Amino acid sequence: MEDLEINKLVVFGVGLIGGSFAAALKKADKVKHVVGVGRGQENLARALQLGLIDEATNDVALALRDADFVLLAVPMGQMAPIFSQIAPYLEAGVVVSDAGSTKGDIIVAARRVLGARFSRFVPAHPIAGAEQSGASAARSDLFIGKKVIVTPEADTDGMARHRVAQAWSACGAEVISLSATQHDQVLAAVSHLPHVLAYGLVHMIAMQPNAEQLFEFAAGGFKDFTRIASSSVEMWRDICMGNRDALLHYLNAYQLQLKQFVGFLETGDAHAIEAIFAKAREAREQWLAKKI
Amino acid sequence: MEDLEINKLVVFGVGLIGGSFAAALKKADKVKHVVGVGRGQENLARALQLGLIDEATNDVALALRDADFVLLAVPMGQMAPIFSQIAPYLEAGVVVSDAGSTKGDIIVAARRVLGARFSRFVPAHPIAGAEQSGASAARSDLFIGKKVIVTPEADTDGMARHRVAQAWSACGAEVISLSATQHDQVLAAVSHLPHVLAYGLVHMIAMQPNAEQLFEFAAGGFKDFTRIASSSVEMWRDICMGNRDALLHYLNAYQLQLKQFVGFLETGDAHAIEAIFAKAREAREQWLAKKI
Question: Distance between alpha carbon B40 and the CA centroid of its chain, in Å?
Answer without folding.
Answer: 20
